[in-house]
Amino acid sequence: MTQRTSPPFRADHVGSLLRPPAIKTAREQRARNQITAAALRAIEDREIEKAIARQERIGLKLATDGEFRRSWWHFDFFRGLAGATFYTTDHGIQFHGVQTKAETIKIDGKISFSGHPMLDHFKFLKAHARVTPKMTIPAPSTLHFRQGRAAISREVYPDLDAFFDDLANAYRAAIRAFYDAGCRYLQLDDTAWSMLCDPNERAQSKKRGDDPDRLPARYARLTNAALQAKPADMAITMHSCRGNFRSTFIASGG
């Protein structure tokens, strides 16, 4: 067996890891104002260093921060984009037998990227990893699919083509920013593709005002546009799944 010396590697992982008890406890304490933001960050730093060391110890050629600083795998990135508003809703995302927290995102302004806290998250990872530091962010299509046309302001974006153009531009800027921070391995997590195989998810997409038969081609154009200016020495991969929350799933079907 030959071992690749550059990403993507034969042995890899998505990027997320189960949050250790220390981080769960610290977040609960922070929510009750029992510790400061700096104290929470220090605990996250320590646990991320442990995770990096273990990834290196077991022989992986890459390391991620386990996404330990995130509350959501996708919303935490989206809420850092201009034009996106994070808010509490009536119900969470429905998984098989369980719902998530009742939070979501809406588009009420022009989408753009001018900086993001996750750039500092990556810089911490890179500073502490002896192997390739890998960053994961949600794919651009996931900002649209789960929320759909219903969550995009018709005053701001009467024409969805303009929304997708701005989203592609924002991702080009984000990719460049991560590259400038030293990132050479970026993964786009794109659950939309597997969701579009599920009859129930397709029905929900129609309720949100979208056409699931046309979305794959639209998402392909969006992804290609987002990657248009990708630096030649930056590896960008894609992960797709049927959703994962408390060991259950959203989508099913062939």
Characterization of this structure:
It is a single chain. The protein has 254 residues and is α/β, with parallel strands linked by helices. It has 2 domains: 15-60, no CATH class; 70-239, TIM Barrel (Alpha-Beta Barrel). The chain is 39% helix and 15% strand. The chain is built from 9 helices and 9 strands. The strands form 4 sheets. A 3-stranded parallel beta sheet has the order 7-8-9. A hairpin with a 2-residue loop joins strand 3 and strand 4 (98-99). Helix 1 packs antiparallel against helix 2 and helix 6 packs parallel to helix 9 (215-226). The radius of gyration is 18 Å and the shape is globular. The protein starts with 20 loop residues before the first helix and ends in a 15-residue tail after the last strand. The mean pLDDT is 91.
